[in-house]
Amino acid sequence: MVKQVKVHAPATVANMVCGFDILGFALEAPYDEMVLRLIDEPIIRIINKDDYNLPTNPPDNVAGAALLALMDELDGKVGFEVEIKKKIKPGSGIGSSAASAAGAVVGANYLLGNRFSSDDLVRFAMCGEKVASGVKHADNITPCILGGVTLIRSIFPLDVVQLSSPALHVTVVHPQIEVKTENARKILKHQVELKDAIKQWGNVAGLVAGLLKKDYDLLGRSLEDVIIEPIRSILIPGFDEVKTRCKEVGALGGGISGSGPSIFMLSKDEATALKVETVMAEVFTRLGIDYHTYVTAINNSGVKVFEE
Amino acid sequence: MVKQVKVHAPATVANMVCGFDILGFALEAPYDEMVLRLIDEPIIRIINKDDYNLPTNPPDNVAGAALLALMDELDGKVGFEVEIKKKIKPGSGIGSSAASAAGAVVGANYLLGNRFSSDDLVRFAMCGEKVASGVKHADNITPCILGGVTLIRSIFPLDVVQLSSPALHVTVVHPQIEVKTENARKILKHQVELKDAIKQWGNVAGLVAGLLKKDYDLLGRSLEDVIIEPIRSILIPGFDEVKTRCKEVGALGGGISGSGPSIFMLSKDEATALKVETVMAEVFTRLGIDYHTYVTAINNSGVKVFEE
To answer: Taking every annotated instance into account, which residue ranges of this chain make up the domain GHMP kinase N-terminal (chains A, B) (predicted)?
Structure first.
């Protein structure tokens, strides 16, 4: 029986512009590195292998809370030791907490002979997200676990749909400013205009159709958010310029990753994705804001588990 | 050169439950029968071959207004004589006015050697819809012209997407009560809760994915409208009972056709569609409301033109 696994838990982009709270996709890079060990005591031990000083008390730790939810459905005879080396910076808006939660439960499930379904794993990992942001959301966890582009048609009851997509290159810029998920959620209006909602679900329908039909133009035209982005983008200096200029150099479109501050752009080919990176770097350099960029692609496999 | 054509312009279902103002599909039956003749004068002559006493003054007639819009983009040397035999009852909520408008412009375009694109035809036919309901909407016209299930991602500028679908049987009941499109629109709230809008676009995404992936279960689960139906269904006696009981006998789901009063239900096979018809008949018989039912299927070709 395998007692220890290494796990790569990828970064993810939630919302995908118009698909607020329902769409998300996984990235090839960056990813967190984790080691999970099955132990003979019903406890969780968290070992941080990075400098983020994240809490190690299991109920306060995202991976710990997710594992506690999983252990609630076990017989109480085993536990887990988890080493976490975070490569996805907390607060970057590309699913850092989801990677910890999803990586932990996928790794644990592997050690248990894959007894839980992916829906179960999403459910457990959501308990980790609750520790991070106060809300049990699944739009990062689902693509992190399943890979590719995922749709959460309904969260209670959970109804997850995997959406195929054409090859997509992704450029992400993480400006080193702080946007708390909690605050990004607070500034949203509880009510929206029906006419805007209709535009939004027209775009959501276009985006899903563009993905499944592998129609890049339709996909690009549909990457428009008339409800959330106009409010949240105010929190991200340079947002409008980045978006306009990236589209000028050939990006299909993009927007805020999750609740920000990272911005992502989709491109049809890597050459364009690299041009987009240059534009992003220029804007934030001129604004005098430190930033980090990633040029990567959609990851179709989700969390990867390796026997050690 | 062909001088006369016969046209079959099908009934259509707009909205498709969660897809308010963006989705619609064409039906195999009923359809309007029209005859169009190219004439050497730049005028329009409307001849009604039914008992509905619809206006014959071209700007006041749905087909006439659509043809006037088309003729605005011609050289002013030809016109059209149109005989209309309406089989789709006006006010039934299955796109009676759209059929007249779409049938007229598709037939006229055929006589002109198909010089206009389908986007042009949608644009012309929308001028007919404006005469009928005061609003330039395209959610019946588009499936009527193109056939199948259509998505209007955006209306200004027009962006229409055809969506493939699995075989679907459709049962429609038209209770003989009056619901004016104008009034059905007036009772809607201008503002909606963001949380409801998110549910709705989750369902829209699920419905589009269900259609394209030919996943009947997903399609059925996604046929849920938390925004429009709770308000509009109040205008249709028996609505909730019809819906519940049709699903009990196996319908995938359904709802109000357009702005009502017709109700449609989708089924995987004809046997279920016939059971659904029985249920619909029982409910309206018991309520003492006259009704008419159709058991039909999605029509994938749209308006049909025959040379005479």
So the answer is: 63-148
State the fold for domain A4-164+299-307: Ribosomal Protein S5; domain 2 (3.30.230)
Please list every residue in chain B whose beta carbon sits closer than 8 Å to the beta carbon of residue A221: 153-154, 159
Closest residue of B to A188, CA-based? B194
pLDDT digits (tens, 9 = 90+) for A105-144: 999 999 999 999 999 999 999 999 999 887 888 999 999 9
Q: Is A143 on the interface with B (CB under 8 A)?
A: no
Distance from CA of A279 to the nearest CA of B (A): 29
C-alpha B134 chain-centroid distance: 16
Over pLDDT 70: what percentage of chain B? 100
B26 pLDDT above the threshold of 90: yes
Q: How far apart are CA A97 and CA B143, in angstroms?
A: 44
Residue A221 DSSP symbol: H
Q: Tell me which residues of chain A, numbers 6 to 45, contact chain B at a CB-CB cutoff of 8 Å.
A: 18-23
Domain ranges of chain B: 4-164+299-307, 169-297
Model ipTM?
0.95
By the CB < 8 Å criterion, does A202 face chain B?
A: yes
Is residue A275 within 8 Å of residue A249, measured between CB atoms?
yes
B169, B273 contact by CB (below 8 A):
yes
CB–CB contact A202 B18 (8 Å): no
How far does A156 lie from chain B, in Å, by closest CA?
10
Q: What is the pLDDT of residues B30-78, one digit of tens each?
A: 999 999 999 999 999 999 999 999 999 999 999 999 999 999 999 889 9
The one catalytic residue among B28, B83, B129, B229: B129
Element (H, E) at A272: helix A270-287
CATH architecture of A169-297: 2-Layer Sandwich (3.30)
